[in-house]
Amino acid sequence: MRKALRTVVLFAAIALLLSLFALSGCTQHPNDEELQVLEETKAAALEAEEALSDCKSERSELESQLAEKEQELEDMQEEKEAVSERLEQM
């Protein structure tokens, strides 16, 4: 008798939980507020991707400028050494 009662209570609890999930589930169509939030989120994501792209291109430019300046520094140091050697020979 207790086993049958326990089984009935268990099935009733499972049925209650399943019906709660079914009734409290999402609707088939989003409302206007949810659509607006979605559009705002998409716009923010696009802006962030654009900002990332701008940062990447700026970084590339700065890295190329740094490489040019390092090469220029190296050339100037070589020229300085050459001038120092010529001055010592005088």
Overall pLDDT confidence: 88
> Helix and strand succession?
HH
Fraction of residues in helix: over 70%
Rg over C-alpha atoms, rounded to the nearest angstrom: 36 Å
Shape: elongated
Oligomer description: single chain
Q: Label the structural class.
A: mainly alpha
End-to-end gap: 118 Å
Number of DSSP-assigned strands: 0
Please report which band the strand proportion falls in: under 5%, 5-15%, 15-25%, 25-35%, 35-45% or over 45%: under 5%
The residue ranges in which pLDDT falls below 50 over 5 or more consecutive positions are none
Number of helices: 2
How would you describe the overall organization of this protein?
This protein is mainly alpha-helical. It has a domain at 62-90. 89% of the residues lie in helices and 0% in strands. The chain has 2 helices and no strands. The protein has helices spanning 2-23, 32-89. The longest helix has 58 residues, at 32-89. It is elongated and about 120 Å long. The N and C termini lie far apart (118 Å). The model has no long low-confidence stretch (mean pLDDT 88).
Task: For this entry, give a set of tags.
89% helix; 90 residues; elongated; mainly alpha; single chain
